[in-house]
Amino acid sequence: MKYDPIKKSLGIVFNATPVLRIVFYRLLDLLLLRAWHIRKELKIWAAKNQQPLQILDAGSGFGQYSYYMSKLNPAYKITGTDIKEEQIFDCSLFFSKINKAEQVSFEYADLTQFVQNETYNLILSVDVMEHIEADTVVFDNFYKSMKPGGMLLISTPSDKGGSDVHDDHEHSFIDEHVRDGYNMDDITLKLKNAGFSKVEARYSYGTSGSLAWKLSMKYPIIMLNASKLFFILLPFYYVLTYPFAFILNYIDVNSNHNEGTGLIVKAVK
Known about the structure:
Elements: H1 4-14, H2 18-31, H3 33-48, E1 54-58, H4 64-72, E2 77-82, H5 85-97, E3 104-108, E4 120-126, H6 135-145, E5 146-157, H7 184-194, E6 198-204, H8 207-226, H9 230-253, E7 262-268
Parallel strand pairs: 1-2, 1-4, 2-3, 4-5
Antiparallel strand pairs: 5-7, 6-7
């Protein structure tokens, strides 16, 4: 399933004005379960780190997490990087229009080559590592780029059905993924081998979250890949299904899961 063409179509619509882009961010925050988990972790981190700090949004995409972190504390200095130049341009233009360009900046970067020695107090990587084959190189670069005591926060699919893959004969639901998901022990070992002294990993997208993902993301993406005309029907679809997805997201983010199709990983230097 191709996801990038849908993202480009959404970008065209919501880039029209800053207000529309902020509305888009709010919609992503509501719809994406990973955003619920990441915002929860960022709130916990920000409560303990209120001084001026440097943050790297590694694989910043639409810039919704950079925007969220800029609202958490105006003293944070945030750098967003992405390998897609159109995303960098759109984000830079938006943050300039809302007068946040001095706090939040964006630049093109290949994470397999990007190193800023001991610069960042927090590095955020949301649904990025499943797109990168040379993951150990990126983990090494993250470690080198982080200040002592800094934290790396990762959201990525797990090998327990992540990318909607449940056996060896299935393929990732998202064509752009180079791996279906991480084994919890495997990603923990890779981060420790990179030098991180403390690594914590937990499952997200348990039973409730996986169902919410199907309702709020999988089925709409399937419809939009079939025809762009489904953009017209989406508001009516979400009016019917989102109340259920909201409850399921809430349950998932406030529960402990023995298994799940997603992973939330924290690593400290």
